Amino acid sequence: MNWQQDKQVQSRLDASTSEPKHNDMLNAASLDQPDNTTSAQVTDSPALDVVNVHSSFRERRSRLPVLNGLSLTVKQGEFVAIVGPSGCGKSTLFHIIGGLLKPQKGQIRMNGQPVTGQRGNISYMPQQPALFPWRTIEENVLLAGEVASASASAAPRAEALAEARKWLSSVGLAGFEQAYPHMLSGGMQQRAAFLRALLSPQELMLLDEPFSALDALTRSDMQRWLLDIWEQNRRSVLFITHNIEEALLLADRVYVLSNRPATVLHEVHVPFDRPRREEITEESAFLERKRQIAKWMREEQQKARLS
User: Fold this and answer.
1) Neighbours of 166 (CB within 10 A)
2) Burial of 16 (0-12, 13-18, 19+ CB in 10 A)
3) CB atoms within 10 A of CB 234
4) Which of the 8 DSSP states describes residue 205?
5) Which CA distances in Å does 116 have to 51, 135, 150, 168, 236?
6) Cβ-contact 48, 74 below 8 angstroms
7) For position 42, what pLDDT does the model report?
8) CB-based burial of residue 175 (10 Å sphere; 0-12 exposed, 13-18 middle, 19+ buried)?
9) How are the residues of the chain apportioned to helix, strand and coil, as percentages rounded to the nearest 5?
10) Which run of H or of E encompasses 194?
11) Ranges in the chain, pLDDT < 50
12) 259-256-103 Cα angle (round to 5)
């Protein structure tokens, strides 16, 4: 399917209705923070611009291409999802955005400013909660602010502690402030990890399949919870998932990536009103988009098998 055909499909749909580890990424979310941009720049420019990014890894005497001219945008206060085949380079893209890797070609811009290779511009939530077992839940939530304490954007500890306790209560963790991670269920640990990212001073949040390890019922509960929390602050979010329904339920737009080396195959605009209702997953417009994205994904899988 070429780009023109993609636009036609989108029109019909609209009418119907060696890579870095997680700890490195968490550190990259808070260390070496650059000066903040002006409010005018933040207002007028997208939260994130990924421009024609190429990336590859050395493999013996050759190079393994991972990203091939990938471009995408996250507007201020927008929730954007990425879906694509396993191993296509989604996590590599996050590492490039976070400054842990530098692309061979292309640029990362945030709020209109070039930040390629710079750390400290994003908050990050990995697939696993990655909570420090020797710290209480309250202390884990405060961690990002502590790491950023040398920055002008970091709140004083007393203020940060009051804010953390308020949010712990609002996300259903009241009474667990002094508990340790092993004392909490998987869903509760994920809430604490998300809250740590939410309370980071950076505006842009990268969520790397945060619910993939949860059972179906807990995952559904966390999706509803995330929608409610996001509606309260409208942070700019880039969200990786393999679950098409999850992407359509949560996001304003969905980028569909190709096999490795990844590029953007399709961009799907999600037209459903906010706040989102879980019942939209049963509507015909939702199901049509879900079927179309699944078809694109199957086509990519077939290409991979034949190559």
Assistant:
1) 11
2) middle
3) 12
4) E
5) 10, 33, 22, 34, 18
6) yes
7) 44
8) exposed
9) 40, 20, 40
10) helix 186-198
11) 1-19, 30-42
12) 60
Tokens describing residue 68: 């091939």
Query: How would DSSP label each residue in 251-284?
Result: -SEEEEE-SSSB-EEEEEE----SS--GGGGGSH
How deeply is 3 buried, as exposed, middle or buried, from its count of CB atoms within 10 A (0-12, 13-18, 19+)?
A: exposed
Residues near 24 by beta carbon (within 8 Å), at least 6 away in sequence = 100
Beta-bridge partners for 256: 83, 266
pLDDT of residue 26: 54
Whether pTM > 0.70 for this model: the answer is: yes
Closest CA to 208 of 66, 65, 89: 89
The first and second tokens of residue 181, run together, are: 């991670």
The pLDDT of residue 129: 85
Q: Which residues contact 159 (CB under 8 A, 6 or more apart)?
A: none
